[in-house]
Design brief:
Length: 253
């Protein structure tokens, strides 16, 4: 017998899929055989992603979603289940990561960061959970961060929001795992994407990051995708309520 890592023909939602990690995760899930519903605020930004997945022989369908709009979350997730027949996987990737010194944080900045990174994650979990609980099965993977367990200067609100994601993941696992729905989180380190390239291509910044990563390299989207696909597959059926750090050893220090 061998562990089953297959997600072939699973129906998966990826939020925040128009760029960065979400874009890459959607492509990896599709390459692994999942039928992927990709979501972002602008359908225009998803067109290239859907085209790339379909040209590679995969299946993708785009849905407009503002993760701050709870009613829209419920409507769109329900539409996916209606369109594609069920919902097997949710990858809660949508998030904001802008840094700001604590003394400069405004109420508007706080509210937007928490609305997207925590409130949106909860209500996406709830909407997916309601569908999955009726089915008696499902996998939810929340994209957290290594700074959900360690701090970084300028990250007071971001770190707090991701710490909240970890606690949410644990609590929902206690409520839902006995009913067939597993929920876990992944915590990436700095991942090289078009959005992080400017900073990570700056030698001083890059050297500072690498000095904190015992593995000696910056993370890639494929590093995160490997963790997500594992947590979405039957191989992880006894794994729930946990944070899988993809950080090259950053938080082991």
């Amino acid at each position: 017998m061998q562990p089953n890592f297959s997600i072939q023909d699973n129906i998966a939602i990826v939020t925040g899929a128009s760029k960065g990690i979400g874009y890459g995760l959607a492509k990896s899930l599709a390459a692994a055989g999942a039928k992927v519903a990709v979501m972002a605020r602008s359908l225009d930004l998803l067109e290239q992603l859907v085209q790339e997945i379909e040209e590679s022989g995969g299946f993708a369908k785009a849905y407009e979603l503002d993760i701050r709009n709870v009613e829209q979350i419920r409507t769109v997730f329900g539409q996916v289940a209606e369109d594609l027949g069920r919902l097997d996987i949710l990858v809660n990737n949508a998030g904001l990561g802008e840094e700001m010194a604590a003394e400069d944080v405004t109420e508007a900045y706080w509210d937007e960061m928490i609305d997207v990174n925590l409130k949106g994650v909860f209500f996406s979990c709830q909407a997916a959970g309601r569908i999955m609980l009726k089915q008696g099965s499902g996998k939810i993977v929340n994209v957290s961060s290594q700074v959900s367990v360690v701090g970084i200067p300028g990250g007071s609100v971001y770190c707090a929001s991701k710490g909240g994601v970890n606690q949410l993941t644990k609590t929902l696992a206690l409520e839902w795992s006995g009913r067939g729905v597993n929920i876990n989180a992944v915590g990436p380190t700095f991942i090289y994407t078009p959005g992080t390239a400017e900073r990570l291509d700056t030698p001083e910044f890059r050297d500072g990051v690498l000095a904190r990563i015992p593995a000696g390299r910056i993370g890639t989207i494929l590093d995160v995708a490997g963790a997500v696909i594992y947590l979405a597959s039957p191989a992880s059926d006894l794994v729930t309520g946990t944070l899988l750090l993809v950080d090259g050893g950053w938080t082991a220090q």
